[in-house]
Task: inverse folding
């Protein structure tokens, strides 16, 4: 590909490429003229290049619309929106619809606005959904709460394109007025409501759809996905780092041509973004699985644009934003170049022009709210963690390796006054969830089996779904306090303590969820804390991720929140000791 | 089909039918529960009927969404919206998007609002587009003018779903600020802009699309349609009474599966509506032409709903308006029943329940503005029609039978002081366009060849595209004045005068364009005036329609407006006499 940058008027003429037309499903030779950031003309191949226009020789390349990720959480990447954009633009993504559910649970509407503000400096465009379920549950203390009024204010922002994933499907089905008010707020501004209803079926699913929920990304089986599509839901096929539904749902896309379906990543972690890519990986897998390549491209361009009413993008047509992805073929989808808003920004494996400018937003990071330390630990941690010495039968959270469900175990343990577990120490550890939003100062204390912390030490995290309190497990109260205080000082993240000193620390100072470092540094940092945790004896593949899900009280069987142990089956808090 | 009307709670359970699922393209057995006007549930066949619910046995029938006509002019049917609805609902149409371009040219925004108000009593739902080109040209005097401010006010009405057909494509292409302001007004309220650009191609078409025009219904060839679709325009396949484009464009629908395409009727006349139907006829023709039946149904349901953002209809899904069309098969599309807003209103060839109520709006007709006589003839018609006696070479409008183009003829004629043409009388008639909106009182006078008015008489019409002035042709000024005054008295319509007396009259008192009578009466009335015109010697198939297009100054070659003869090629007014 040759690049003639002689132009001075900001026009860019992409000549000789093969256009992937997502409107008609055709591929054919066409030239694309970009001007003032928009596509000005799409003309039959061979139209003369007007003098003074920069021209890009696209012979041998396919010209696609830039990809749109219809559902993702920036927070899962643990980097800022600007850094996320720098990571995925080379993979063809030029727009992402981010659900800021995690930061909202920590910092509320101000956190959402901080993320939105931070995203403005990114090389990709971000659009947002207004998080519908903050707090996620009443069984824990979140940093904030978003009611219908706050959501309505967010929904009026042009950058907010939908009400975010409506996880409280029982509330929708039983027509809870507070929940319906949130849906009505989206309706008033004509924006759709994203769904989140794993396994919902039959009459309840009908009620959920009738209430106004219009998409779904939690379907995991063909049968579930088909029932949801038949009732009119737009189907987001999720291919995240952990939850991967493409293989199961691909037959439906093949049957329907992918209409009213789109590809999304939901949660992708730093290492996965670096190693596998983003939507480009999903396209590769989909085409390898037998889906027509143009249908696959539509599922990551025209379809999300149509669903979210993003009329200004997702297609190669006059008047739309000139976001283009040039690839060598429609199987490997290997990036040759990316044009963002009419400007060639990435070509031949490197940034074009001003890479410093492009990455400028990365270290600058977040706006005002995100700059402050969001970790507010209660006074007298030592007293709050203390449990009177006792031997007997206790409720213990049993980790199941590789899953987010846990077991509700009943084990004989002997706990001393310093938080040590005596002979059971290698098998069972003390664990605590410390409210860190400066609201209640509450601490829940419990026991966990399966972390395998053998030596004296502790692991701690401020990433703890969904309220993101500080969760810490360790061999003694003293080790746990050192880990918690290390995170309190650096504004949150992951910490490992060994023999009373911090052996590994990944600061995530932006809301205690995200770093302001490049994604490669963050991936290395995660690897380092996990390695340090394994040095304590933990044999889990990803100790920090396992820890971060132990406070999620909607997933069976036994979880711990800042308000205490929670028995999910009984749907109530329970005491540590049995009898 | 059996109908158990024992229910008292307004619920209707349609059991045992075969659902046409426009989301997935499938057909399968399913039960549909309607409640409070909406679809409450779509469940697998065999779900039990809850006690007290009226049930409709739909075994052996297909259950489709009610049809949506995405582009039509009520005025072309010459009846009120309520009567139009009564005419087409038995053909499966439950919603029509009406462009009130004709009444707007007569009565302006008040006329549009009158039509909208009148439509509220109809058994179908009407949505409207805001007429973008009023007046249509500067070469004639329309009754009103709609600027960007008036259009913006209309566009804010929830019943207005788009800016109406943007016929002034030269103005868009050259970026006329007044035209762009109208498009911007639609953009501000997030509503699409309907196009109207016959033959536009290449760079000009790119500019038209880039300006924000998003659909087109004027494509007549496959090549033209494909170019427009490739650039992202939604393609309306028009099958009107005169303009019929289905046969030419059907291959494109077969290729693309009909995505982003829809069926519309634009202009359908009363006799055609009665004899052939409406969208149901288009579906029959499309399926007979090889289009997949479900794809065809989508083009008249889901697709127009998607294009216009009508999220509340066009599909059989929970929460949507329960508008359903039950047919015996997907080839003949013969209506068995129609459910409107959850109520069975038509079944087995007749209205159900209160037919008087259903048709109530028909004779009530229009609201305030529409009640007044809109025909305001100037004083001293006799003086205004008078042309000094002269013999010589004159410009004569040459009618081409069956077409709306005319010839610009130069003929030797001899005109006496009474408006008679002496020996040329059978071949050439005097014709006048009389400004009838009470604005300028202007009268244009000319000569026409091909009407064939042999005996003493005249024919007149207040339907005269696009400004709908009164157009009259006759053997003498006296006969012409009798015809014009007959229309002035009855509020407009069609009149035929023979030997100085009215021999046939069809009053169209609603804006001089529409009747308040049933469509069958109007069809008979049109037949009667055409027959009376033929008794004067006219050999055209539809003399009144031929007359109504002689004042349209955008169609070549020679036309007459209230401001005089207009040479379309030269694009200027020209004198009657040559030299």
Result:
């Amino acid at each position: 590909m040759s690049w003639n940058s002689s132009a001075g008027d900001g026009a860019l003429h992409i000549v000789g490429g093969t256009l992937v037309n997502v409107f008609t499903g055709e591929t054919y030779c066409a030239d694309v003229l970009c001007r003032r950031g928009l596509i000005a003309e799409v003309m039959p191949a061979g139209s003369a290049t007007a003098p003074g226009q920069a021209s890009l020789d696209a012979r041998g390349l396919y010209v696609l619309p830039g990809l749109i990720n219809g559902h993702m959480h920036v927070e899962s990447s643990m980097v800022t929106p600007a850094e996320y954009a720098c990571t995925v633009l080379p993979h063809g993504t030029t727009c992402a619809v981010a659900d800021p559910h995690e930061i909202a649970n920590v910092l509320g509407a101000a956190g959402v606005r901080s993320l939105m503000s931070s995203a403005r400096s990114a090389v990709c465009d971000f659009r947002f959904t207004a998080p519908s379920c903050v707090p996620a549950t009443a069984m824990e203390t979140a940093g904030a709460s978003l009611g219908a009024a706050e959501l309505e204010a967010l929904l009026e922002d042009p950058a907010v394109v939908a009400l975010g994933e409506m996880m409280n499907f029982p509330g929708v089905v039983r027509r809870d007025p507070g929940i319906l008010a949130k849906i009505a707020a989206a309706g008033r501004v004509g924006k759709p409501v994203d769904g989140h209803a794993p396994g919902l079926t039959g009459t309840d699913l009908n009620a959920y759809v009738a209430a106004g929920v219009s998409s779904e990304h939690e379907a995991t089986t063909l049968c579930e996905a088909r029932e949801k599509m038949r009732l009119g839901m737009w189907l987001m096929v999720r291919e995240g780092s952990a939850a991967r539904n493409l293989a199961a749902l691909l037959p439906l896309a093949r049957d329907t041509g992918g209409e009213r379906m789109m590809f999304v990543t939901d949660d992708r972690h730093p290492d996965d973004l670096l190693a596998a890519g983003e939507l480009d990986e999903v396209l590769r897998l989909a085409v390898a699985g037998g889906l027509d390549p143009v249908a696959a491209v539509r599922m990551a361009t025209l379809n999300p644009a149509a669903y979210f009413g993003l009329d200004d993008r997702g297609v190669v047509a006059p008047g739309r934003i000139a976001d283009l992805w040039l690839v060598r073929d429609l199987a490997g989808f290997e990036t040759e170049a990316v044009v963002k808003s009419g400007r060639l920004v990435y070509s031949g494996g490197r940034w074009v022009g001003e890479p410093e400018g492009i990455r400028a937003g990365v270290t600058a990071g977040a706006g005002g709210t995100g700059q402050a330390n969001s970790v507010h630990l209660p006074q007298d941690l030592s007293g709050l963690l203390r449990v009177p010495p006792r031997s007997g039968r206790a409720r213990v959270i049993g980790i199941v390796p590789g899953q987010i469900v846990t077991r509700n175990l009943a084990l004989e343990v002997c706990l001393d006054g310093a938080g040590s577990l005596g002979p059971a120490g290698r098998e069972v550890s003390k664990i605590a969830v410390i409210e860190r939003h400066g609201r209640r100062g509450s601490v829940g204390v419990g026991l966990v089996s399966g972390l395998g912390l053998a030596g004296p030490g502790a692991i701690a995290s401020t990433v703890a779904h969904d309220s993101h309190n500080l969760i810490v497990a360790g061999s003694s109260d003293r080790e746990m306090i050192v880990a918690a205080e290390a995170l309190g000082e650096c504004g949150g993240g992951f910490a490992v303590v060994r023999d009373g000193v911090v052996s590994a620390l990944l600061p995530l100072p932006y809301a205690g969820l995200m770093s302001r470092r490049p994604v490669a540094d963050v991936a290395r940092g995660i690897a380092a804390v996990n390695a340090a945790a394994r040095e304590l004896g933990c044999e889990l593949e990803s100790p920090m991720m396992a820890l971060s899900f132990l406070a999620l009280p909607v997933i069976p069987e036994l979880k711990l929140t800042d308000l205490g142990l929670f028995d999910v089956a009984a749907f109530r808090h329970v005491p540590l000791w049995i009898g």
